[in-house]
Structures are given as C-alpha cells and as structure tokens.
Write a structure and sequence with these properties.
- The protein has a domain of 137 residues: Roll (Diaminopimelate Epimerase, Chain A, domain 1).
- It is built from 7 helices and 6 strands.
- The protein starts with a helix and ends with a helix.
- The chain is elongated.
- The protein is 59% helix and 10% strand.
- The longest helix has 46 residues.
- A 4-stranded mixed beta sheet has the order 1-2-5-6, with helices on both faces. A two-stranded antiparallel ribbon has the order 3-4.
- By secondary structure, the chain is α/β, with parallel strands linked by helices.
Length: 276
Amino acid sequence: MGMDSGSQNGNNANSKSGKNSVNGWTGIHYLFYPGPSYLRPFFLIFIIILILLFYRAAVKTSENQDISATGRSALTGTVTYSKWYSDESGLISSDAALTEGLEYFYSRTGVQPYVMLLPYEEAFWSNGEWQEEAADTYLANVYNDTFTDGGHLIFAYFGCENDTEEMNGVFHFYYGSSAPAIMDQEAEAIFRDYFADNHSSCDLDVSELIGNTFAQTADQIMYKSSEPDPDSDSDNTVLKIGLAAVLIYAVIGLTVVSILRRKSRKKQQNTNEKET
C-alpha cells in the first residue's frame, strides 16, 4: 500500500509538473504568436520576410559603405581620342588590361582618360623635389595639342631619378575644363584610395594596377548617377512587399488579440455571474 501511495503521489506530482510546463509554453507561445493556429503560416511568412529585409539591408550597407553619396551625371559630347596611353617608360605589359579599365571608366563617366608614363626628366625635378608647376605646364601643352574639348583627363607618372620597379616617382592628374564635374575632390580621393590598395597588391602589374583602379573608381563615383539602377528597383519592390506584409500581419494580429481579449473578459464575466 505504501508503495502504491508513493507511486500515486509521484504521478500526481508529474501531472502537476507537466501541467505547469504546458502553461509555461502557452505563455511563451502567446507572447510570440497571439493568435489561432490557422494564422500561424502568415506569422511564419512575416518572420521570414522580416529576416530577409534585415539581411538585405545589412548586405547593402556593407557593400555601399565606401560608395560616393554625390550624384553625378555622365558628360556628353566628349570627342573620343583614338589612343589611350603613352608609355615612354616601357612599363605597360598588357594593353588589354589597361585599356579595358580606361574604356569602362569612359563609358560610365563620359570623361576619357589618357595615361602617360614618363621616365625621369630633370625639368620636373629639382634637388630631388618634384616640380608640380613645371609638370602642369607640360601637361597643359600636351592636352591642348591632343584634345579638342574639355572632357578628357591625363593621368601621368613622372619617374624620379634612379627609379625602380616600385615606381617611386609621382602620379599626377591634369583635367580638361569639363572633367572636374565628374572628378571632383571626393572622386579623386576615391581613386587614390583604390590606387593605394591595388598598388599594395603584389599580384598586379602596372597595366592591371591602373586599369583596375579606373574601373573600380567609375563604379563608386557613378553609383548615384541619373541612370536607373536595376538592383535599386528590385530592392524597392522587395521593401514594398515586406512593408505590406508587416502591415497586414499587424492588422490581423491586433484584430485577433482584441477578439481573444473580449472573449476572455466575457468568459470571466460569465464565470463570475455563475459563482454569484
């Protein structure tokens, strides 16, 4: 008898514990999903959409953290020059790697770049110091003799005395009158950041270094151009659908909660009336 009694007490204890567990789960379940089971699929869809929206926003933020926020419209009317570079230093090993990047920059910005790689000349250096004024005068003459409009830029390298493969000379921009509308201070800073990153890579030769830098810069500085962005349109569509789903679920959830509360109050009221 004692054993049976002990067993019964154990069962009662287990039953009571089990009931508490169920009630506890019900409380948690109600907190996260305050509605009937037939609305559970909508709740799950809402959660999935919400997660995707947050994930997409995080990815876009990561991708675009260095992108220019300045809107720029590509130049029009630039007369295309047949040549893309002049290599008096013999540093270009791949014509395609360089020109593809320059052509891409031109297609995005409307500014045609021209690269000049110059060996050491005493006229541009004085006691080991580079002479920017002399370089600008030289490049101005080259520009006026080569191009007929303001939609070009010259990216020139002035080799120093006893220069090495590390290229210890000076890279310098010279712009036509229209080019600064695209290559403003922000754009040039973006270019220099990419150039420094690419220059630190041992895997790139001079052709790839310059070509890649121009291509990367074009994508960054023209991100907010007047041209439509298909990815942006897609993101806006997803965002609208997500917001609509959130709104629908919010309305349904509030309605269900309101109904359940009314039923609960009515049930409690009926119980109280029966007890009295």
